[in-house]
DNA sequence: GCCAACGTTGGC
DNA sequence: GCCAACGTTGGC
């Protein structure tokens, strides 16, 4: 069992949207490091913190579960999509999606809270320059966050 | 809107 | 392969 943190902008797709739809193809990831995690490491049954970014109160807002692993991100072939990539072909897809299922909503665990917690100093999310939209969370961090803040 | 910290592109 | 210019992320 592995743990992850996926960022999303709530204006685009929020935890409430996921709760309403129950499952969602996680598309639009256009960063190679994040893509590599999706392609090579995200496994069936892994648990994911859903994180709201670029919004009034950034933070962890819920939990989801991986119910389908690496497949070509459909949006890269859709020329109507803002994620369309003309250089990607079905034979050699460049971008990868997984499907997430809603598990639960959490009372927001604010970025400022996580940042000020000494126990979480080494968490990737709070590192300077951390920008990855798909990032691993180590088991100790996951359990500590659940026990302390949910 | 600002800007630090990256990531990508493309000429050489 | 180097690196300047440009683009993006995302907190504040």
UniProtKB/TrEMBL annotation:
InterPro entries reported for this sequence: 5hmC_binding, EVE_domain, PUA-like_sf, THYN1-like_EVE
TM regions (residue ranges): none
Domain of life: Bacteria
Pfam families to which the protein is assigned, alphabetical: EVE
Domain EVE residues, every copy: 2-147
PANTHER family in alphabetical order: THYMOCYTE NUCLEAR PROTEIN 1 (PTHR14087)
Entry protein name: EVE domain-containing protein
Species the sequence originates in: Pseudoalteromonas piratica
